[in-house]
Design a protein that fits this description.
This is MTH1187 family thiamine-binding protein. This protein is of the alpha+beta class. The protein is built from 3 helices and 4 strands; from the N terminus they run βαββαβα. The longest helix is centred in the middle third of the chain and has 16 residues.
Length: 102
């Protein structure tokens, strides 16, 4: 499964990068495949391990901020691995003009 999530502290002002870095650090230290962009961090693995990482990432932000916002989107698909890479590669093939995507 792939989970894309965003965790942000509330009530700490506009500059939240330091708090978000705490969450991303948890994800990167998990050893699971992951990617971070301007809006979300995506992490790939089995249900329990991914949800544990999300829970720990939220806890890392919550340790410094009394209120936390979590947005989460999941792609639950049995038997798929390396989806973080393969999904993007498929789109890139279409963009390159290979209309079949293969």
């Amino acid at each position: 499964m792939i989970v894309a999530f965003s965790v942000s502290p509330l009530g700490v002002g506009e500059d939240v990068g330091e708090y978000v870095a705490d969450a991303v650090r948890v994800v990167r230290e998990s050893g699971l495949p992951n990617r971070t962009d301007a809006m979300f961090t995506s992490v790939e693995g089995e249900w329990d391990e991914v949800m544990d990482v999300v829970k720990r990432a939220v806890a890392a932000v919550e340790a410094r901020a009394g209120r936390v916002s979590l947005v989460l989107k999941a792609d639950i698909r049995a038997g798929v691995t390396d989806g973080l890479t393969s999904k993007v590669e498929t789109v890139e093939r279409y963009l390159a003009g290979d209309e079949q995507g293969s």
